[in-house]
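#data-curation
PF: Archiving a pair of folding outputs for the training set. Convention for this channel: one message per protein, sequence first, structure tokens after, nothing in between. First:
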Amino acid sequence: MCVINKINNNGRTNEIHVFSNERSVSAEKAREHIEKSLTICTEIGDRNGEAFCYAYLGVVYKSVGEYEKAREHIKKSLTICTEIGDRYGEASCYANLGDVYKSVGKYEKAREHIEKSLTIRREIGDRNGEASCYANLGDVYKSVGEYEKAREHIEKSLTIRTEIGDRNGEAYCYVNLGDVYKSVGEYEKGREYIEKSLTIYTELDDRSGEASCYAGVAYTSVGEYDMARELIEKSLEIYREIWDRGKQPPVTVILECCI
């Protein structure tokens, strides 16, 4: 996006950048296109474009589990963003680094980087980014079993999502709160929050969100085996509708356990 916005009269750059944003291409193809874009950005001195490409490469490497390469590229992006004074870019890089560290189980480092992102988000007035940081911190705390802190941070995220009218974000927070309560054995509360999420996803016609919620509610149905099975089957039915044929939804494993 930044390449197109900054040098939109350069047809060559535009063409490559559009390719790099195609979601349907493989990670390898995406990497090739982004690297071509990076080469051009470097040649023409587009530092903003360079930073974007490095960050995007980091995301691609993370998506295929190459976490060290992901970290290296996002750090390169962070260096450039800091040099050119791109505070939004810095915040994004810190958040992405936090996500990489979380993926490899380095939760303290993840927390540190997400909190750096949060600080910048507050300074620049990025409410959406602030909400995302609180949600990510909640996920980190949940991962290490600090459920009260997880709840507090997710609720902060929920408050902001509600204030800015982000319904999808609200739904995401409700399902995460439900997961927190489920983790401490408060299944009824867990179900209440996941059902709130389900209501929103249904209103938004977010079928993937609905499927996830049905599976989540099933997990809170302690001892209610018939209901749990029915909910899992609903979830599986939706996944079958929206996923490509031959791609096995993860809920299949849950269904097999319920049979």
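PF: Second:
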Amino acid sequence: MPPWFEYRDRVSFAAFRGSVSAIGVQFLFSNCSLMKSVDLSGLDTSSATSTYFMFADCSSLVSVDLSNLDTSSVKYMSNMFYGRSSLASVDLPGLDTSSVRGMRWMFRTCSSLTSLDLSSLDVSLTRSMSFMFEGCSSLSSLDLSSFDTSSAENMRCMFDGCSSLARVALGAGFSFEGSGGSRQCSLPDGYWRASSGDAVYAAVDVPSDRADVYSRPTFHDATASTPHLDGVS
């Protein structure tokens, strides 16, 4: 545990001056419920193998910049932002996930997050993505176009509770079956229109391994496209 763990409920700001090397950053700011900002520019995480629970339950932290974070050796990012109920934005384009095996619960119950661009992430070795976005009730847009889920053994409940999700970008490497032979998860219940044509799918029938952007059809669109519904009887 970090040295400030005993008074974590009084921390409002954190910064690393100079260069601070860390072998592990799991639980680093976990339960710092009053922390509103953090400066990670002086933190050297090049040897860190886990960011497990790093920002979990930081309920007052609205945004975080991870652009200077070296995660090239990190294998476990599970629960990294779990319970961040005030998180409205997170900067992830520079995050190196090429070695990551676990991402379960990574954004679970980040209920203020409205959009998430994960198009730069490499998840080709990731085995667990269960509950990854579960409870992200304000999330309306999600870009997973770079996701290759061929190694995923557990994708259970990945999108559960994403009641506001209206647009999802999936790439040719995204399979709802993961590494298994049967479907592990689906987009939130309802119908989804593929941008590449007129097809409208029930959530459980949105195809795997097909690059496309899926959006919720309006009532008028769904009615007009009823003859083209795929997988719906």
